[in-house]
Amino acid sequence: MNLWPRLAWPRLAQFRFSWPRGVGEAVLAFAVASTVLYLLGMQDNPVLRGLETASLDLRFRLRGALPAEPDTVVVLVDDRSLAALGRWPLSRRLFAKAIQILDGNGARVIGFDMLFAEPEQPLADDVRSAARVAAGELADPRLRATLGRLADDDPDGDFAKAIRNSGKVLLPLAFAFVGPEREEPTELSDQVFVKLDQSENEPLFPLQGHSAVLPVPVLAGAAAGMGHVNIAYDRDGEPRYDYLALPFSGDFVPSIAVRAVAAYRGIPWSEVGLALGDGVHLGDRLIPTDPAMRLVVNYRGPRGTIPTYSFVDLIEGRIPAKTFAGRIVLIGASFIGIPDTSAAPFDNTPVPGTERLADIVDTILAGDFIRELPPPWPGLAIVIVMALGLAIGVGSALLPTRLAAAGGAVPIVGWAAGAQIAFAHGVWLPLINPAIALATAGASVLLFRYALVDRQRRGIQRAFRYYLAPDLVNSLAAHPERLQLGGETRALTVMFSDIRGFTSIAETFKTNPQGLSRLINRGFLSPMTALIMARRGTIDKYMGDCVMAFWNAPLDDPPHADHACDSALAMQRELRRINAELADEASAEGRLFHPINIGVGINTGECVVGNMGSDERFAYTAMGDAVNLASRLEGQSKTYHLTIVIGEETRAAAPSWAALELDRIAVKGKQDAVRIFTLLGDAEMAQSPEFVGHAERHDRMLAAYRAQDWAAARAALAQCRGYDDRLAGLYDLYDERIAFYCANPPGPEWDGVFVAETK
Q: Is residue 43 within 8 Å of 378, Cβ to Cβ?
């Protein structure tokens, strides 16, 4: 692949790929995106996992809170309950009373989120025996009854009785995952385990329970069922999952949330099954999980989203009975000093563990599960990311540089928006890994483009910034195919502008050549160049005090004749301002002031434009007969005592401007005569009644002159005088010609053509 052709101008501007424009960048983006996605898509990376889970929390906040199902109520032993009912732990008679109240209010399921692993013994055994003996020896029946109650005090028995009588109370258990495995594992009732369904998926359990922490036997035997309350923490320590089932002693123990929903819906325990790697079957309904039997907790909202009440209000009857009717009631504890709280994704307020449990129950009841992508979707996600990487490559290649970065960000924003939409529909679409892959691909393409592809653009900008206006340079750099290097034929409007009387001006700077240079650059070349370039003109060259410019190359400029005419009039106006400044400077310096006067020649026609020169030195320039004629017209501006002279092709291409025909002239070096015009003003002036009337008088003068009707020509000429001081020299010229031809008639063969003897 030849990247540096020998003949090039500028050499960087000839940089070309052998493949179509943009394909190279797209291939690179495709390769980088796919490679990065595969390498960074490993979930074992803790940094990436932390970023991904943080993005999940953000998606919760963007989604907002969900309305809670009306099936679940939380009752908490809080600080107010302890202040009213006594220190922690509360007597289990209070929990027995709570069960009786909830039974009476029609609660369907009562679940405790407290481990009753130790028996409650308010009195030591010897004290209880002494009270029993004393009760038998006392004569006072009331005192004997009181001591009897004290001797028979059994809070656990009362609590167990309330549990057994209710028949709807679920108690928790917990597993220990650290420490030596016990030689005799804890025995659990068969009713605790969930049966194993047939499944082709391999289970993945990072945690294996060594022992179980159970309620005291009297309570465990009375409960309608038990489930574990172990929390599934993510890598960042947040409780993002719930284990719907955990292995223990060769079987699987469900979470208390599964037990609560099964009891609430009246599903026989024999119809609750476990499909390893798929989820938990509740009758004919599947609760989906990942291979580790984890369910993503779909947090309903910040603290308080699930209806929550104080335990003391329940005990003292301040909660309406209808609050609990037909519902799942979860009883837990949340007060200062208890560690059973965890962070939630919505705000910084800790959420009680019981409310988190209620979120899990509510998620199962509502069925709005959050699923991580199951096969084959991860592979499809990779394909989509690679396609977006391809889009980044193509967009970065085709878009302008200032938009390329934004264009590269669009697929990333699109993926993020898609991830949020998917999350709203219960799919945890990975965000961080694809975003990093796409960002890496986009950055690689942009660096590739800047280092290689944009070298062409920068070369064009460096080469043409001295010839074209900045917007034209940027346009040419964005579309270098418009630059036909080596020369092409196209219609141009060419301008030559020269300072009149430059020799006289130079004489005043004999002892200060640097001052002459500053005068020419500041007072003429710089401002005139700016005016030309601002009107889409291309500066061809500077020849001493002369400027050559053209329009319609290297970029298309359909109204090129209009832009040239506009530039000439703007130069004329700017010159008046410059002369005023120079006059003030000359007066301050005590030197003679010579005003700068210019002549402008403009012509339109077919030219050859492109790189002209040799292998070692070349320039972007225009050549052709139209260029030569423009130069001659600038020279004839002295003959006609005018500033601007334009050719008939320019006049035809820009008919709306205020212009007057000057003559039919055969310039030096050409035999064919052309009509020439002078430019006086813009389209507004051309439509004014004053100019229209003067143009008619001027045309009558020329018609009489060419018809050799000298008297009529002289009369029309007299009517033309006084309209515009800029035309005084022109009419003096015609007055002299008419006087000459009156004395020396040209004869019938005369066609009115003036033959120029000078350039």
A: no
Q: Cβ–Cβ contacts within 10 Å for residue 184, how many?
A: 6
**Alpha helices for 590-646 (secondary structure H):** 625-639
Which residues are bridge partners to 72 per DSSP? 328
* Closest listed residue to residue 565, CA positions, set 494, 665, 468, 636: 494
Separation of alpha carbons 677 and 674, rounded Å: 10
pLDDT at 189: 56
| Range list of β-strands (E), 231-296 | 231-232, 241-243, 245-248, 251-254, 272-275, 279-282, 285-288, 294-296
Please, what sign has the CA dihedral across residues 343, 345, 349, 352?
A: negative
CA 35/CA 511 separation, integer angstroms = 72
Q: Is there a contact between 411 and 388 (Cβ–Cβ < 8 Å)?
A: yes
Contact assessment for residue 623 and residue 641, using Cβ atoms and an 8 Å cutoff: no
| φ, ψ at 467 (rounded to 5°) | -115, -30
For 23, the token pair is 């394909």
DSSP class of residue 432? Answer: H
Gyration radius from the chain CA atoms: 49
pLDDT at 301: 87
pTM summary value: 0.57
The residue among 20, 1, 4, 2 whose CA lies nearest residue 456 is: 4
Which residue type is seen at 147?
Answer: L
Q: 342 in helix, strand or coil? A: strand
Strand partners, 480: none
- Model pLDDT, residue 486: 62
Structural contact between residues 499 and 528, judged by C-beta atoms closer than 8 angstroms: no
**For 23, how many CA atoms within 13 A lie in the half-sphere containing its CB?**
6
The burial of 570, by beta-carbon neighbours within 10 Å (0-12 exposed, 13-18 middle, 19 or more buried), is given as middle
Element (H, E) at 95: helix 92-104
Residue 679 structure tokens: 């430019």
Burial class (CB in 10 A: 0-12, 13-18, 19+), 32: buried
Q: How far is CA 350 from the centre of its chain?
A: 34
Residue 2 has what pLDDT? Answer: 32
Give residue 90's Cα distance to chain centre: 57
* Cα–Cα distance for residue pair 77/85, rounded to 1 Å: 10
Q: Are strands 294-296 and 597-613 parallel, antiparallel or unpaired?
A: unpaired
Asked if residues 98 and 314 have their Cβ atoms less than 8 Å apart, the reply is yes
Q: What residues of the chain score a pLDDT lower than 50?
A: 1-22, 42, 124, 126-127, 131, 135, 147-148, 151, 179-185, 198, 200, 202
Which neighbouring-strand residues pair with 663? 676
Secondary-structure percent of the chain, ordered helix, strand, coil, rounded to 5? 50, 20, 35
pLDDT at 435: 81
* Terminal Cα-to-Cα distance of the chain (whole angstroms): 51
The CA distance from 221 to 385, in Å, is 55
Q: Could you tell me if 345 and 60 are in contact, meaning their C-beta atoms sit under 8 angstroms apart?
A: yes
Using the CB atoms, write b or e for 719-733: b if 16+ within 10 Å: ebeebbeebeebbeb
- Of 278, 291, 261, 271, residue with least CA distance to 360: 261
Buried (b) or exposed (e) across 401-412, using 16+ Cβ within 10 A? beebeebbeebb
| E strand or H helix at 505 | helix 502-507
Task: Report the distance separating Cα 254 and Cα 111, nearest Å.
Answer: 14
